[in-house]
Specification:
By secondary structure, the protein is of the alpha/beta class. The chain contains 13 helices and eleven strands. Bound molecules: iron/sulfur cluster (SF4). Iron/sulfur cluster (SF4) binds next to loops.
Length: 328
C-alpha cells in the first residue's frame, strides 16, 4: 500500500472530520464521489499578516483536477482522509445559503479583499453540478467597494464573464488563471483533469473582452520541465495575446503532502530527473539560492520584453502557502 489510509487513532471523530464522515453522498462517478458538507462559515479570515487578501472563500473541499504538485492535499487530513489521493476523489461541496453568506459579508469592510479559490479550484468539475461559485458571485453582485479576486485553472470561469463584468461596476475584480505550459500533452500528465491550456487561454480572452483584468500564473515552475526560456516565454506571449495584463511564475515548492504524490510521479514519468529533484527538495520544501534568483531574472526579462506587468500585486502565492493552514 502506497499510503496509510487508516485513521490516526481510535478516538471518536470530531469537528470537520465528523462532519465529513456524516456528509451524504450526492453522486458518485467511477472515480470521484461528491458529498455535500455543512460549513460554519463561508468567509474565512486570512490570518497571515503578509497575505495580500483579508478574506478567503473556498466553495469546495478537495479538487478533482488532481495536479501532481498540488499543495492543498493536506486539507483532507483534517477530515481524517490521510491518503493524498482522496483529495481528488472525495469532493465536498459546502452547502450554500445566500442569506447567511450575505450576512457574513457584513464583516468585510469597504476596500478589503475577498479572494475566491485560495485553497481549491472554485471552477473544478463539481461547479458544473453545484454552481456554488456562481451563487457566491450572484450575492457579490449586490455588494459594493470590495476587492474581489478569483484563482482558477479552469475555462469554466468564462461562464461567469458577464456576471463578473456586472460585479466590476461597483467593485474591483481580478482573475488569476494558471497556465504552466502550452504543451497539452505535458499539461495532461501534470494536471490530469484540468482543462487544456488552449481552453484556458480562450477563457482569458472571454474575461478580458468582458473588461475583467486577468493575470496568467505560470505557477508552479517545475525545474527542468517547465522552466526553460522557451516554455515561459510561450506562455507569457500567449497570455498577452489573449489580453492578460500580468504574467508571473514562481518555482515549485513541495510540502510533505505534495511531495508524496509528486516524487513518485517524477520517478515514473521523468526517471532521468528523480535524482535532481531529490537533491533539490531533500532539505527544504522551498528552493533557496541561485535557482529562484535565476528564475526570477528570467521571468522579469520575459515580462519586460513583452510589455507585461510582472505580477498582480494582490497575489503572491509563495507567501500565501506559508499560512494556508489557517484558511479553513
Ligand atoms: S487546480 Fe489547484 S487545488 Fe485543484 S488540484 Fe490543481 S493545484 Fe490543487
Amino acid at each position: 500500500m502506497l499510503f496509510d489510509t487508516s485513521p490516526s487513532c481510535d478516538a471518536p471523530l470530531a469537528g470537520i472530520a465528523k462532519l465529513a464522515a456524516e456528509s451524504p453522498v450526492i453522486e458518485a462517478k467511477q472515480r470521484v464521489e461528491y458529498f455535500q458538507i455543512e460549513t460554519r462559515s463561508f468567509v474565512g479570515r486570512c490570518s497571515g499578516t503578509r497575505m495580500p487578501f483579508v478574506w478567503t472563500v473556498n466553495p469546495y473541499r478537495g479538487c478533482e483536477f488532481g495536479c501532481k504538485y498540488c499543495y492543498a492535499r493536506y486539507a483532507h487530513e483534517f477530515m481524517e482522509l490521510r491518503d493524498p489521493l482522496q483529495f481528488e476523489r472525495k469532493i465536498y461541496a459546502k452547502r450554500f445559503q445566500p442569506d447567511l453568506f450575505r450576512s457574513e459579508l457584513r464583516k468585510v469592510k469597504n476596500g478589503e479583499s475577498v479572494w475566491i479559490g485560495t485553497a481549491t479550484d472554485p471552477y473544478q468539475p463539481a461547479e458544473r453540478r453545484h454552481g456554488i461559485t456562481r451563487q457566491i458571485l450572484e450575492v457579490l453582485a449586490t455588494q459594493r467597494d470590495l476587492k474581489i479576486g478569483i484563482t482558477s485553472k479552469s475555462d469554466l470561469v468564462a461562464r461567469d464573464a458577464q456576471l463578473l463584468r456586472t460585479i466590476r461596476e461597483r467593485n474591483m475584480v481580478h482573475v488569476n488563471l494558471t497556465i504552466t505550459t502550452l504543451d497539452a500533452q505535458l499539461a495532461r500528465l501534470v494536471e490530469p483533469m484540468a482543462p487544456r491550456p488552449d481552453l484556458r487561454l480562450k477563457a482569458v480572452r472571454a474575461l478580458t473582452d468582458a473588461g475583467v483584468g486577468v493575470t496568467v500564473l505560470g505557477n508552479p515552475v517545475m525545474p527542468f520541465i517547465t522552466d526553460s526560456e522557451q516554455n515561459l516565454e510561450a506562455v507569457c506571449m500567449a497570455a498577452k495575446e489573449a489580453g492578460a495584463m500580468c504574467f508571473s511564475a514562481h518555482a515549485l515548492f513541495l510540502k510533505p503532502c505534495s511531495k508524496a504524490v509528486f516524487m513518485p510521479f517524477i520517478e515514473k514519468l521523468f526517471p532521468q530527473l528523480i535524482w535532481k529533484y531529490r537533491a533539490l527538495y531533500q532539505e527544504n520544501a522551498y528552493l533557496r539560492g541561485r535557482y529562484p534568483e535565476m528564475l526570477a531574472e528570467r521571468v522579469d526579462a520575459i515580462v519586460q520584453r513583452h510589455g507585461m506587468s510582472r505580477r498582480d500585486p494582490s497575489y503572491i502565492p509563495e507567501q500565501f502557502a506559508e499560512s494556508q493552514l489557517s484558511l479553513w
